[in-house]
Amino acid sequence: MVGLKGYETYDAVGLAELVRQGQTTPEELLASAISRVEDLNPHLNAVVMPMYDEARRSIREGLPDGLLRGVPFLLKDLGLLYKGYPTTFGSRLFTGLVAGHDSTVVARYRQAGLVIFGKTNTPEFGITITTEPALYGPCRNPWNRERTTGGSSGGAAAAVAAGMVPAAHASDGGGSIRIPAACCGLFGLKPTRARIPSGPDVGEGWNGMSTDHVVSRTVRDSAAFLDVAAGPSLGDPYWAPPVAGPFLDEVGRDPGKLRIAFTTTPPSGAAVDPICVDAVADAARLCAELGHTVEAAAPAFAYEPFQEAAVTIINTNTAAMVAAGAKVLGREVTEADVEHVTWRAAEAGREIGAPAYVDAVRVVHQTGRKVARFFQAYDMLLSPVLLQPPVPLGFLNTHSADVRAYVKNLYRFFGFTNLFNATGQPAMSVPLYWTPEGLPVGLQFAGRFGDEALLLRLAGQLEQARPWKDRHPGDLPG
């Protein structure tokens, strides 16, 4: 079947409007998406589980008349379940685990009329910020195929940046929406804690630090997907604050004159590449030109106890994932079954006692209270997303026995994002800057708890002032 000419130039809202107007069909859009995957995926390794027949079946049986009817869509192969297909979590442990039901968010995506036709690459258990799993192999950045896509939603970001889909499912427990968005020149919003439900199998991810959403090329797509997926489901342990109206209506509204703080010093105090410092200065100037008040400031909190607590939560959850893998396999999991960094994290998690785990949760909550006070004085905090532009593939080697070297490199790249997973605040990566070599540099804006609306208003203003939608990678094959 012939696809839609110029498919890759449209966002999801635009494609859905073409379907509503009868200018294209879901079948044509799916053909376009599959064609781009087949052409580009051998070079990028973004899509690791094609579901083409399932997608065609969903169209034949009739799509719901939802907000995004007919738009092709990809799920990250981590966390969310799709009935009849595996969710591997990027690990060899779970390749045979086939879901017997949909996750709540997947059901909402399907009800919106999305055509889910595959799953994207992710690191094992999502515990690192590059996408180079042993199970599927490295995902390559469309802007430079020798560079990382970021993680853990690296496959999603590569697919969107390459025009396979206009938006793709992503998740974020320490930066895993914002980091790939930054590396791949996309918009990536991490919603407020509990804005997106985690059910029906779990009430939260990583003790509330993890949440689902998308990476996208446009701000309005991010808002539309938030409208589709947001809202509590039955039995959720807690809810995000209610919103005044559709998120899509916020895009284009005047954000007013905002008080924007900015910083180029990560909480760890680690060195930041001058190009990332320049990116923040450039974004601060742009915000000032748009009429906002901009000044240097950052929240004060005890970084080392916070970081230790966050690592404790991740390690204990990793140990629980390995234990779940043992149940699936019906035997003990050995070091040979998982990547080295995963094994060491699980070992550390098994050694953590209940009092230390409870104390880690307390420290994270305490940090959230301290940081919230800062946002009484400021509407937003601007910073880099990362400490340097996208690093080469192999820089973060989860297969190496030299864990010290891995951790050292991790903290040379990562440093601004995970605070807002702990506090539960919404934060976004906005593609406002590129290096002279053509690599994207994402800028993070964090807002008050529950106030995605204000972030979307500012993002829409920035997008209008400095459009990025039609800026495409020049390194794509063909």
TrEMBL record:
InterPro entries: Amidase, Amidase_CS, Amidase_dom, AS_sf. It comes from the Bacteria. Pfam families: Amidase (PF01425). GO terms for molecular function: catalytic activity. Residues 28-456 form the Amidase domain. Belongs to the amidase family. This is Amidase. It comes from Desulfatitalea alkaliphila.
